[in-house]
Amino acid sequence: MNGMEQVKAALSEKIAAAGITTVDAWSRGRLPQLEKAVAVLGIRESESGSVAMWNYLGDVWDETLGHPVERYGRHLHLTLFADFYAPKGCADEIQTGCETLEEIFLSPLAEGIQGNSVQRGELHYDRTSGYLKCRCTVTCLAYFTATRTEEGALLTDFILKGVLQ
Length: 165
Known about the structure:
- By secondary structure, the protein is α+β, with helices and mostly antiparallel strands.
- It is built from two helices and eight strands, in the order H-E-E-E-E-H-E-E-E-E.
- It has helices at residues 3-17, 91-105; strands at residues 22-23, 38-50, 56-62, 67-86, 113-120, 124-126, 131-148, 159-160.
- Strands 1, 2, 3, 4, 5, 6, 7 and 8 form an eight-stranded mixed β-sheet that branches.
- A hairpin with a 4-residue loop joins strand 6 (124-126) and strand 7 (131-148).
């Protein structure tokens, strides 16, 4: 799973735990007729980079191996969107969903994810879907680490900091 997918999965779990029904992509053919509000989650834009020269963070002691291993790090700036859809008469569910999303992102998310801002759009009727719609845009910063246990080994698995495998 790449970095964006790791962050999106972690955030989807957090949002679902708060009682918001989520879907990955909007598809009228795939979704049944809505009876309550749902959030469609997606990635609007991203930018990744190094957190240190050549990503190198230093050596750490590995208890399992009994010797030091090299640790590397990267970061990922993400702009995510959550489009809330609901049938007519359920505008209050969208408002509650937006408020819940703001609470989630403005409180500590996970060790490796820092929420920066939440922007809520206007609630309106969406002719394309036939539902009420409101877009929330969220910016966050995620940190990833990887270790190299052997000299010359390639770094292929950057893991979201603080997430157990």
